[in-house]
Amino acid sequence: MSSDLLAPLDLTFWNIETAEHPMHLGALGVFEAEGPGAAQHAFELLATRAAGVAGLRMRIAGVLVPVGGAARVPAADFDPLDHVWMAGPVDDFHAAAGALMERPLDRARPPWEAHILPAADGASFAVLFKFHHALADGLRALTLAAGVMDPVDLPAARTPKDAPAPRRGLRLPFPGMREITLGDLDPRRYPDHVRTLAAGATQAVSIGASVARATWGVRTSPALTSKASGTRRTAGVVLDLDDVHRIRKTVGGTVNDVLIAVVAGAVRRWLDERGDGSEGVEPRALVPVSRRRPRTAHPQGNRLSGYLVRLPVAEHDPVERLRAVRASMDRHKDAGPTRGAGAVALLADHVPPLGLRLGGGLVGQNARLLFDLLVTSVPLPSLGLKLGGCPLTEVFPLAPLAQGQALAVAVSTYRGRVHYGLVADARAVPDLDVLARAVVDELDELLAACVS
């Protein structure tokens, strides 16, 4: 029976979960129905195809070595019908998704679910995918979900004639631990190992100091903090990617800079409309950065760092907000994803599994001391996806909500449009629709300022 040990960050996500603080992410995909039985057909396809996706059969189990560790292991009693569910007709996909995102995943089974939501008018249906963060990050979740979509014809990958042959090595006796090569056993490399350990310790000290500095002079809003209630509300916003490119070409920066600036402006509008006020507010947004190697065929677990960006919510000029975001992102990119307070996730690499297990609750309770909201980008393929011949028309990524926080924002681009997925604590943010409208209004104002 094969397995792979949870990486430190994955183990952290597994350990910080509580009943009021589920650590799962998701995606709500909307499909155009090709007939009256489209939703039922989608249910049958998902249940059938899930059995053939190896990653969907993996559950999380404890291991003897290392102490306190855990691994992904195949579930011997895997039944797709424990994970794929058919709902009754719904009038509002996001209202249904919010209620479903509240429900914790069964930790004794492979931690994922897929819910088919037929629209009451029969013109469309949605599929809500939920994955525990210990099973998959955004990229891995995308890979797993793509495994149950209709096959897509892609150009076959070619291996260069001069590509090096794979190295042979000696395997450790514990499943999931990395392969040891003969070069690792060469005594002449011991100084290299010592230097690696020293560099890791230096990095940990540097990140720790940055985390301490990030708590100084914090100017956030009480609207972004919340006692964990376990309730969830979601909303989605669709924007034209061409509008984003027009803004980018005028002001400079990247598409992601524009999308983050839109979040800053939308939060400003939302705070002002609800009466909390945006004067002096500069919340810290954690912007995750993937550390995966390019062209990883089967990415496992979380390989994340991040940038901690002060959102210029108090700035009244939308163009200046964008310039401030761009300058902040440029500084973080110059420093790299292994430095700064946003790289705090890398500290998990320096903590033994037992420490991660025992300290998980403390980490979860103090996330809000480091950042005020999550703003993450999830990559999607540009090619059109289908399920049972029904085209995917919209897809809203749904980020996990950190304990003590009221709001998380995820964004994806798909076939010429930008999709914002908003997740909030339902009790703390009953007016999430106001924030959703503010995203649209902010892009409109920013675009008008750039083309005038």
TrEMBL record:
<keyword id="KW-0443">Lipid metabolism</keyword>
<comment type="similarity">
    <text>Belongs to the long-chain O-acyltransferase family.</text>
</comment>
<comment type="pathway">
    <text>Lipid metabolism.</text>
</comment>
<dbReference type="InterPro" id="IPR009721">
    <property type="entry name" value="O-acyltransferase_WSD1_C"/>
</dbReference>
<dbReference type="Pfam" id="PF03007">
    <property type="entry name" value="WS_DGAT_cat"/>
</dbReference>
<keyword id="KW-0319">Glycerol metabolism</keyword>
<keyword id="KW-0808">Transferase</keyword>
<feature type="domain" description="O-acyltransferase WSD1-like N-terminal">
    <location>
        <begin position="6"/>
        <end position="258"/>
    </location>
</feature>
<dbReference type="InterPro" id="IPR014292">
    <property type="entry name" value="Acyl_transf_WS/DGAT"/>
</dbReference>
<feature type="domain" description="O-acyltransferase WSD1 C-terminal">
    <location>
        <begin position="301"/>
        <end position="446"/>
    </location>
</feature>
<dbReference type="InterPro" id="IPR045034">
    <property type="entry name" value="O-acyltransferase_WSD1-like"/>
</dbReference>
<protein>
    <recommendedName>
        <fullName>Diacylglycerol O-acyltransferase</fullName>
        <ecNumber>2.3.1.20</ecNumber>
    </recommendedName>
</protein>
<dbReference type="InterPro" id="IPR004255">
    <property type="entry name" value="O-acyltransferase_WSD1_N"/>
</dbReference>
<comment type="pathway">
    <text>Glycerolipid metabolism; triacylglycerol biosynthesis.</text>
</comment>
<keyword id="KW-0444">Lipid biosynthesis</keyword>
<dbReference type="Pfam" id="PF06974">
    <property type="entry name" value="WS_DGAT_C"/>
</dbReference>
<keyword id="KW-0012">Acyltransferase</keyword>
